[in-house]
Structures are given as C-alpha cells and as structure tokens.
Write a structure and sequence with these properties.
By secondary structure, this protein is mainly β. Helices cover about 5% and strands about 55% of the residues.
C-alpha cells in the first residue's frame, strides 16, 4: 500500500487491517488465483476510478506467504472493442510455461453481450491480449441462456476444459462445458449440470469445479449464498450427491480457488460491504477479500473448511482461559479483554443450553454488540448484527442458516473466529463458515463476552490473539 493511502485511511475504524484489499477504491470478485514460481498471485475485479462498481479492470497482488501482499500494476484494462465495457471475471492457467488469463469481455454492457477472451504474459505483470480474441463469442444455439461468463479452466491429459456460468430461461442455473487443445479454439460439449432448485436463481456466476480425493466439487454463486455440491463426474456430466453452502452469511460471494504447491485447494471470496453506496464512496474503499480458506474432505465425506496455517504469523499477544461456566444470567465473563483485530479459538461443552456463542465488538454500555450464535436446539448458525452499530446507513440483521451441530462425535462446538475491524469470519468445527460485516459507531465497541441461553453450558478453552496488521 502506498504511504499516501496509509495516511488517508489511518483513522478509518472500519477498514480491515489483516485482510487482503487494494490500496483504495472498489474491489469485488477474486480472479485467477495461482501459485507460480514461488509466489501467490491474486487478481480481482477493480475500479481504479473510485469506490463504486463500474469500469471493471483486473487488479493484481502478489504474495510469498498468502498473508503479506504487494500491489502490482493493473493487469487488464477494458481497451479493445470486445471488452471496452469491462474485463470481467475469469481464471489463470500455465499453458506450456506461458501464464494465460481467460476472462469474460463485455463489448456492450447495455445489451448484456458477453464473450470469452485470453491474454498471455512472460512476467505475470505485463499482459498481451490475443489477436484471436474473442475466443468464444457464440452462445450454444439450442439453449436460451440467462448469461455467459466467468470461465474456470483446467487440464486433463491433452485437453483443456472450460466451464462457464450460465442459466436456461424457465429452467434454472446451468454450467456449460467446453473443450480445447490450445486455449484458442473451443468446442462446446454440453451443460455439465442444470439446476432445477427453485431456491436458486436462474443465473449461476463464478463457477469452480475441482476434485477432492475421489469426489468432485461444483461451486456456484447464484445471486445469493454461495452453493456447493459434492458428487461424481462421468461422461461430461456432474451428478450431485450432497448440497451445502460455502458460507452462511450474506457478505461472502463469487469465490475463486486454486491448488498451491503443497496440493491444497485454497479459496478466496469477496466480502461485500453492508453500508450505503454513499458511505462507501466517501470512505474511498469498498470490498475486501476473505481470509484464504483451505478445503478438504472429512472422513465422513463432508466438505471441510479451515483458515490456512500461514495466518498464524500474524498472531501477537496471547491470552488463554479455560473452564468457565456459562448461563443466561452470566455477564462480563471476558471482562478486560478488548480488541478489534483478533483471532479467537473457543471450545464449548454444550450442556443443556439451547444456544451458545460469543459476543464481539461490544461497547461498555451495551449500546453496540454483535452476537455469534450456535442455536443447538434449532440447529442454526448465525451472526446477529441487529445491535452492531448505532449508524443508520448500515444494513443489519441476522445472517446465517441451518447447521447440524450433531455431526461431530465429541460433542464439542469449536469456534474459530477472525475479527478484523468491520469483518467477522467464523469457522465452526472446520465444517461451516459464516461471515458478516459490522460497523460500530462507538470507538470503544471492543469488548468480548460469552453467551448461553435456555440452559447452562461450559467454555472448555478459549485462546485469543491480538493480530498484527499486514
């Protein structure tokens, strides 16, 4: 980050301090994450003109450790007739030692025309668009589609495969499959999967498709909570077996993933703001990346998710407490522990309580506080931000969904929480995440507490670290 922007944002109490974000202006979808020659590259949808959505470019950041980031020159600009209205989301691959970006170009935003394009580089900094662009500009003739964007590409044996986010009018979301030998000439195969889930919109954005052990995972962003399916893949068709959500909150969207040099499947998501457009513009920034999450399969075949180990380098001062009884009458159990840049790992014994959890960003007079709630009785995980801020221009509510707390045999509920100014990210038992944005108006909304409703529970252990800035 430039010194000028550090000075400009130094008193901003809402701007995250250890999550990746550009020096200023608007950011949304993560694009083309890749590990190449000892470095992690993360691109993203970026508007260099201000903190509002328009004029999409590809921003670019580089890291050696997934934690500390150096901001690079803009990678792609809307410079050609086929992408003059925006260079939208996509991916990055290495094709015979040549880094290649595959992205959606927008020649006419008003008419919603979308085409697929590529650009190559010798140094990962300067990118040259192909004279073959657009490489795909014709929709599959037999389908009446709702969209045609966000390529995700992988290689199997001698062929490259691409999926595109789409949908079929009157039917549901769809993911279209293509094949190529050289990334330039593409053959349409078929829809890899067509959804008929009435809960989901009929346009699925930013698809990801990858293998974990012997299962295939399909991830889509259907204008709402990010959905995944675990299943099998045969004859160019995905057969879903189990459905879930990557994140139960309303802030996490359009994730993108890659495999690193250790074989880990790592994913970032865009954490949307939950305050008015006017406030975002005035702040001078909008959008932040989630912490990088590693995905794996549990022994029971369910999807696992956890923060990457590298984040531990940010841990500073540490406090550990254990064996604390909690009841509905308990208050100030974590008195004198304060912070707005924290990592918390807490293990609860459920007891007979109907709900357990933590309170974060709490003011001394309780006028502002945010509750992380594990409702055991109703099998629901949520973050309650209704009292998180006295500011009127903030979207507040209860963000979460169903979660089966009985999945884990040891009976413990383990919460792994990151508090970074306006970002709250929660991992539960390495099986589910929920994310929210909070914007306390009071400078002293820094307190923590424990909660238990409908009975008694016990905090087995809690570790709290004060996190360093990046």
């Amino acid at each position: 980050m430039s010194h000028a922007n550090e000075v400009h944002f130094v008193n901003d109490q809402q701007r995250p301090a250890f999550h990746m974000m550009p020096p200023a202006n608007w950011m949304n979808d993560p694009n083309g994450p890749i590990y190449y020659k000892g470095e992690y590259h993360l691109f993203y949808q970026y508007n260099p003109a201000g903190a509002f959505w328009a004029n999409m470019h590809w921003g670019h950041a580089v890291s050696k450790d997934l934690v500390h980031w150096e901001h690079m020159p803009i990678a792609l600009t809307p410079s050609e007739p086929y992408d003059k209205d925006g260079v939208f989301s996509g991916c990055t691959v290495i094709n015979e030692s040549e880094p290649t970006i595959i992205y959606t170009g927008i020649p006419d935003l008003e008419k919603k025309i979308e085409v697929q394009c590529i650009a190559t580089s010798k140094d990962m900094i300067n990118w040259e668009k192909s004279n073959k662009n657009p490489i795909i500009d014709v929709l599959p003739g037999e389908l009446e589609t709702t969209g045609f964007r966000d390529p995700f590409v992988w290689k199997e044996e001698d062929n490259w495969y691409m999926i595109l986010g789409s949908g079929i009018k009157g039917v549901g979301g769809a993911i279209l499959l293509y094949r190529s030998k050289d990334l330039r000439e593409w053959e349409y195969i078929n829809p890899i999967y067509i959804g008929e889930d009435e809960e989901l919109e009929d346009m699925w954005e930013c698809p990801n498709f990858f293998k974990l052990e012997d299962k295939y995972i399909l991830v889509v962003s259907p204008y709402g909570k990010v959905v995944y399916w675990i299943g099998s893949y045969e004859n160019y068709k995905f057969i879903p077996e189990k459905k879930g959500y990557i994140d139960l909150g309303d802030s996490y969207y359009a994730p993108n993933s890659f495999i690193d040099d250790k074989g880990r499947r790592i994913m970032w998501g865009w954490l949307k703001e939950q305050r008015s457009k006017e406030v975002q513009k005035a702040a001078g920034w909008s959008g932040v990346m989630s912490v990088p999450r590693e995905f794996f399969l549990h022994k029971d075949g369910s999807l696992g998710m956890k923060p990457v180990e590298e984040l531990k380098v940010l841990r500073g001062e540490h406090k550990c407490l254990s064996d604390i009884p909690i009841s509905v009458d308990s208050t100030n159990l974590l008195d004198n522990i304060q912070g707005d840049r924290l990592e918390i790992i807490a293990e609860f014994e459920k007891g007979d309580a109907s709900s357990i959890g933590l309170v974060v960003r709490k003011s001394p007079d309780n006028s502002e506080y945010t509750e992380i709630i594990c409702n055991i009785a109703e099998q629901n995980l949520s973050i309650n931000t209704k009292n998180s801020s006295l500011a009127k221009e903030v979207d507040k509510g209860v963000f979460g969904d169903c979660y089966n707390f009985n999945d884990d045999t040891d009976g413990l509920v383990r919460l792994h929480i990151f508090v970074d100014k306006s970002v709250i990210e929660v991992f539960v038992n390495e099986r589910q995440c929920v994310t929210a944005r909070v914007y306390p108006a009071c400078g002293d909304s820094l307190g923590l507490d424990l909660l238990a409703w409908g009975g008694k529970a016990r905090l087995k252990d809690i570790d709290i670290w004060w996190m360093k800035k990046i």
